[in-house]
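Researcher: Good morning. I'm working through a list of sequences from a screen, and I'd like to move beyond sequence-only analysis. For each chain I'm collecting a predicted structure so we can compare shapes side by side. This is the next one on the list. No need for commentary yet; just the structure.
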Amino acid sequence: IEALQQAMRIPMPTATQWDLVQESAQTLAPAHEELIRTAAQGSVVYNDDTTMKVLDLTREQRAAALSDEASEERTGVFTSGIVATDNGRKIALFFTGARHAGENLEAVLERRAAELPMPIQMCDALSSNTAGDFDTLMANCLAHSRRRYVEVADSFPEEVRFVLETLREVYKTDALARNDGLTPDDRLRLHQENSAPRMQALQNWMQAQLAERKVEPNSTLGDAIRYMQNHWPALTLFLRIAGAPLDNNITERALKKAILHRKNALFFKTLNGARVGD
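Model: Good morning. Structure tokens for this chain:
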């Protein structure tokens, strides 16, 4: 940015830029803390990770953030995106460092009021998204599971068409509930009436594909089927719990900001700079 400012003949040294950012960060810190506290009270929390680079992340800082075992094994740096929703309000939080999304979510949920019920958690099925000591109603991302079928559509067009058309109708039902402004309970009843039979048919189809050897279990399509079967209860939470979402797309959209920064600026210099960036 200093070079850009120089080229525009309005030079602004990096030190001046940092002074301005640091002053703003200190002013905004209390608001940021309140956003974290408010997000912890959300009825639905979404979380996911993307990789990041911090040049001067010291061994001491990594050890302070992680347990002794994890500190020795883990070398990556991540930006975690956590989105909390409640009554139409959305709060997006970012945390950069050595900890995974599940560990950062644990730190957020430590501020949750004890009298509140367990939140719904939406994420993909990676263990890093659930690392930490907290209780949630687990929902897994249906779009993430769908993507596995899309990737093998060229090799198994007929089989994949059935899966995609089934999920398309489920998403149409969800869009109808959203456009009509249905309450979470009414949305649940609509899904139970329209989507539950379709999802049951999909479950029966998957069982038949493997049991009758119509699909080789070790094939790419077999992998997609077994992934969905292994996570079926979490993938279908929206059929049992009011307010449970279908997918984690809201967090993936939020993380695009972190990914855009990674592509443009390439890295953070220090952990403190990463905190200001978050």
